[in-house]
Structures are given as C-alpha cells and as structure tokens.
Amino acid sequence: RPEDKYKTSSIDVELPLGRIIMEGIFPEERMDRIEENTSSTLSIVDDLILNNTELIENVVRECDCYYTFCNCPCELTNGGCSIQGENCCDCDPCEPVRSQIEALQVINIELSELLEAELATTTLEIQSLRNELNRLARLEKYFVEDCRLWTLQSLNEFLIKTSDYSVIDGEITTVKAWEDISTIYESQIEGKIIRDWATFYCQVGGKTFFEQPEQPDLEGPTEEIPDMYLPTLESCPMEAPVGEFIDRAKRLTGLLISRLAYFKYLQETTINAVHEINRMVNDCSSMNCYPVCYCCGWDDDGNCTDCCCEERCRGNPCSYYYDAIREQLDIIIEAREAMGETVWNEWEEDEKTREEIGVMSIIRELTPTFLEDFKQHVWYPMRECVKDKTSNVFFDTQRVLGQVDPEGVMIRTPCYKEPTYEYCLEECYLEEPHLDVDDPEGTYRRCLEECLVDQAEQRGLDQIAWCRHLLNFYCCNVKWTPLIK
What we know:
The protein is α+β, with helices and mostly antiparallel strands and 485 residues long. The chain is built from 10 helices and 17 strands.
C-alpha cells in the first residue's frame, strides 16, 4: 500500500535471556532426569558387580578339565607316545555349573542393556545442555556484536514502545531469535500465565532505524561510546548484573557438562568391561584342556612298546583368562567408586577442587541458589525498572560511567573478555548468593571485588580493580535519553 511507506515501523529481535537460563538450561525437569539417570546407573552397576563376582567365582571354582574325556588314540611314534589328533577332549569342563553360568550371563546381558539405555540418556542430556549453552553464547553475541548495546531494550521498554506505536498507527514486527521459545508461558510455580521479564529486544530495522555507529572494541576495559548515545543521568538506584549472570550460567553449565561427560566415560568403561567378561567366560571350554598320553608297556630292553591315554583330560579351561577376568571386574569396581564420587561429592572449597564437585551438589545446591539469585537480581529489576510514564531507563555499563551504583560505588570501567577479569570470574562463579546482606563476606560480588583488587595490586593496573561487566545493566533516572539523533 502506498501509505505504508510513510508509516513509522520497527523490526525487533526478541532475546529471551530468562527462558534460556531458567527453562532451557536449568529447568526442574532436567534436574529430575539427571538425578534419576545417575541413581539408576549406580544401582545397575552395583548389580553388575554382584553378578560378575558370582559369575567369576563359579567359573574359577567349578570349571575343570576333569569333566572332559580323551577321545583321540595315543600311539607309539619315534620311540615315544603321543596323541594322534586335535581337539581331543570331549564334554563341557563347566558342566556342573553351566546352567548357573548361562543364567548369570543372561542377567549380565540384561543389565548391560539397561546400562546402555542409561548411557544413551546421559548422552542426550549432555547434548541438550550443550545446545542450550550454545544458545546462551549466541544471545551474548547478539548483545555485543549484532545489536549494539545502546539499542537494547528491556521487555517493559519494548511494551511501552509498542503502546506508543499503536497511538501513532506505527508498525512493529517482532522476530524471534528462537522460534521454539515463548516469553509468555504458564508458570507451574505461580499457577498462571506470566511473562519472562528477563527478555531483551534489539531493533534491527524499520522506518525509524538509522545506520548504527561502529561498536567500540569490547575486548577488555573500555570507556569508548559515541557521544550521541550518552544520556543525562540523575541516579542509578537499581542494578541488574546481567553480564555476571550470563557468565556464571555458562560456567556452571560447563561444569555440569564436564561432570556428566566423565560419568558417561565411566558408564562406557563399565559396559566394555562387562562385554569382555562375557567374551572370556565363553572361552572357558574343553579347547583349553589337554589329554595325557603315556607309555604303558616295555620290552626287555626297557623300550616303550605300548601307549595309553588317561581317560580324563587335564588342565584348567579358564586358567589362561582368570587374571584377565579379575582385571575386568576390578575395572567395574573402580568405575563404580568413581561414579559415586562424581555423583555425590560435596564441594568444600578448602578440601576439594571444582573438578571433584558431585553432580548432586550442582543440581540440588548450586543450581537452585543460582536461579533464585537470578530471579532476585535480574528478573525482578528488569520487571520493576521501567514503568509507563516514568523517567527510568535501563542502561548498560558503558552508558552509566561516572554514576554511583546502588552500593554507593562509582562505576568506572566496563570490562569484557579481559584476561585478568576472566580469571576473577572463574575464581568466584561458585560463590553464593550474588548478594547476601546476612553474610556479605561470602558473596559472589564480594569475591569478585576482592579478586580484582588483588590482581590490580599484583599487576600495577588500577583500572582492573574497577572492572564491571560490560553487560551489566542499571536502572537509572534520566532527564533525557536521545537514543538516536
């Protein structure tokens, strides 16, 4: 329509931060699946150990070449006696316990199939977590590369924009970054339809869209931002440390993936050991037995004139494999011990490294605390900051330089991908919660601040001590907000 070319319009990409973190990476259903998967695996391996211990004891105790009989002639050759033929031992050397062995092997096969099913579940969970982690990394890339920070809007800001457009008969087109994620959903906890307030929108086109200036280099501390995007701020009484929580979510997810990947390796090791035991037990046969041929007649000169064969064969049909079978059982036992530690190790910072944290500690303790922390310090501020007919605006760290944060500390240096800052983020991401007024010495933010001060002193770089995550956001009261000139 000809009139459409004069219509104000906007094309905005929807970036569902909260849904990716809360319902993509860390939903309760996933935590329940992981707990069931690890618990079932441990139970199956316990049964495998018991079953294979009994299997090996039966094979070693009862299988004997005494139960086989020589079926080849023993003849005089070259003045001595020798067996004429091959595979001369008949009958099953494990005949007294063969039915027990077969029954135990059937159980072994059933248990290993159950373990393979749990392995498949573990593999799918790891892949799903990696997919969600990739989404979070892609969303972060949107923030720092594709959208330009100063074009980002919170959900509330976007709703106000939508309302304004309706008044002037403007047109807004929303493009979902991920079609399968809805930011309006039914909350099982609250029992009603709610919005994900931890959602951002990025304008990428439309009639009101002008060419964006080049994004400053964000690799490390920076204070660069185009003057045309600098607002006049009065105060910033509320903070939503989005960048810190994205970083923590990525690291916590990576930790969970690494622990599950090791658990998967132990599952595979156990399955391979069970298959090896079954293979070696099947090789316990008369093929490993040998007949005994001896001289039973002599002439007057003492030369052998007649040969006889013992009725029963000799040897141990499993003797060649016994040590190897025991080794495979020991592998299963060691894997089970490692599985238990991988699942149940509690994290005590002074006693265990992060690589030793148990899966249960991650999904029962660290994850719920992180999610509650996220809701209090990101989801809630993003919901409450911008209201209709108020002068509050949600700003990234670059646009609030020189302002005082809610704790009374000046915001001086935005940091992103700076090695020293990354080091401190890694050191502190398991601290909990983000801010606890009852225990300020044990908080994530306190840990981060102390680490940065320490690193700044060691390197003689004061700027590092002032680092704030580039993707943190602040709810500020402004006199004017010229986002575009």
